Amino acid sequence: MSATDRSPTSHSSLGDHSAVGDRAAADHVAADRASAARAYRPALRPGVLIGPPLLRGPRTVHLIKHPVSGAAFEVGPKEHFVISRLDGTRNADDVVAEYAARFRLRLPEEQWTRLLGLLGTRGLLAGSPDPAPPEPPPARTGTFWKGSRRTVADAHGTTGRLHRLLRPLLRPWAQLPLVAAVLVLIVAVLADPVAALDGTWELLTRPLVLIPFAVFLWFSICLHELAHGIAARHYGGVVTEIGLRWRFPTMMMYCTVDNYLFLPGLRAKLVVAAAGAYVNLVLLLPFALWWALLDPADPGRPVLTGMLFVGVVQALSNLVPLPPLDGYRMLGHTVGAANLAPETGTYLTLRRQGRDAVAAYPRRARRLYTSYAVTAAALVLLAVAGTGTALVLLLLR
């Protein structure tokens, strides 16, 4: 009986020692893993694109883009701070110390692990397997009434060849005189609005001149789009598509810059956005020289005045900060905001519900969206009033 009583006690002791040993082994493995995780010095894979801070609604975000798949996602300022330090030289302790110095907060270990897991899953860490490249878009989409068609098989290579051909003309010694000539052209044409309206009427009443000039404007718009691509290539951008887009009965050329938001610095983005309108104005310079050399009493001068006026207005209208014009993109880059018009609409909708509805918006966002709403409304009214006045003056002739 006593032997039987001692037997269960002996077995229970062995079980306890086994459980303790298993827990110790598990703790040892967990400690090794934690130590390895802290010693790990992660690095982003080469070519990962990280964008500047952008205001999107009440939040500040950064865009991160995979260099192969083209997939992009947003992260907040704190995640961006950590990701920007993944260069292969820092381990978890280094990043935690820098994070604490920057935000006066300690980066939790689980957040560090979760962020690395997210980056690894998305293939953004060095050593991650290459994802499949994106499927090329269809050559043609849409219908007879509305759609698009890709017309260049290798848009990036085509714009690269054009850039190499035009590179000498992109240097300051060539551009400074052209910029000065364009400014003189704008001032000279807009300085006399009466003569400009008279010339526009003369142009409209001469179909044999109007039709060729309309064709010239169409080709000018095509070159406008190519100018965006060439300027992007100048700053290291990637041009993914060149084609035609139509909405019956109109048809226009388009040029898509894939990593436009990731171009280095504000100046590059502004130059790429303004390149189209600038080329439109440069193309008018031969007409301006002809116009300047004509005698003021020459019967052909008013028609040239009208051509220059229409061309200048067409080019400058692209710089108005309203979507989808180039000026709208330039304004968004300048103020560091994404989707400025839609986010302004969202803010105004919430604002009508009261101040509490927009409490999450920082002061800068509230001021920016309110200012843009007022500016956009004023520009629309000004454009309507100016167009109406010009039409009335032309009809009253």
Description:
The protein is α+β, with helices and mostly antiparallel strands. Helix content is about 60%, strand content about 10%. It has helices at about 1-40, 75-85, 90-105, 110-120, 155-165, 170-190, 195-205, 205-235, 265-280, 285-295, 300-315, 325-335, 340-350, 365-395; strands at about 50, 55, 60-65, 70-75, 140, 145-150, 240-245, 250-255. Strands 1, 2, 3 and 4 form a 4-stranded antiparallel sheet that branches. The protein has a 4-stranded antiparallel sheet with strand order 5-6-7-8. A hairpin with a 6-residue loop joins β3 (about 60-65) and β4. α6 (about 170-190) crosses α11 and α10 runs antiparallel to α11. The longest helix has about 40 residues, at about 1-40.
The oligomerization state is single chain
The biggest beta sheet reads: 4 strands, antiparallel
- Tell me the radius of gyration: 31 Å
3D shape:
elongated
Query: Whole-Å distance between the termini?
Result: 127 Å
Strand elements, count: 8
The number of helical segments is 14
- Taking pLDDT < 50 over at least 5 consecutive residues as the criterion, the unreliable ranges are 1-14
Note the run of SSEs as H and E.
HEEEEHHHEEHHHHEEHHHHHH
